[in-house]
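Minutes, project check-in

Agenda point 3 was the complex the collaborators sent over. CS summarized: two entities, 223 residues total, and the question is how they sit relative to each other. Sequences were read into the notes so everyone works from the same version.
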Amino acid sequence: DIQMTQSPSSVSASVGDRVTITCRASQDVGSWLAWFQQKPGKAPELLIFAASSLQSGVPSRFSGSGSGTDFTLTISSLQPEDFATYFCQQANSFPWTFGQGTKVEIK
Amino acid sequence: EVQLVESGGGLVKPGGSLRLSCAASGFAFSAYTMNWVRQVPGQGLEWVSSISGSGGSKYYTDSVQGRFTISRDNAKTSLYLQMNSLRGEDTGLYYCARDLGGATNLWGQGTLVTVS
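CS then shared the predicted structure for the full assembly.
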């Protein structure tokens, strides 16, 4: 199975800050990488697919980059509604696997 | 409205069975691969199973292979997960999710399965 490792596991940031979350795959997943946001008590929501494509309706302050084994999710200017947990997920091969999550908390 | 609504969760003893359902509406259900993803509350996400739009291709995570069966009824726009020989580690919130080329872009609210 492909292991997905996110870092950091949590980050404290202020409104307006730039936040970067990284995701590393244990083997090459090409561009088959998605990012999700999850708020407490809610289902995950897709932010980015194919490593860098912004899902319809997602604010442009979210961006994704990378290919192969190293990926990044960037929030350019953190907004109050962005405090949540973020997960990466590879879909290069079954079983699809998720990172352990990064919790973005208010500083 | 485009939505997925899961049902069928509950409390079951180890070794028991449950059948989860997911009712889809507002989109061309048969055109999409569908997935089940589970989550222990407060923890991470685990992909469980996928089924192609026609139902001809099915995939499972190793821990449920041989115990769980994914199926769909395109006429009823519904997805199912038959879960047999349930174990404590199967406890979690089970989400039905629509696939977009490897990224799930529509999720239900989840149905809770507790094995105890």
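Noted in discussion: The mean pLDDT of chain B is 96.
Follow-up: revisit at the next meeting once the mutant set is ready.
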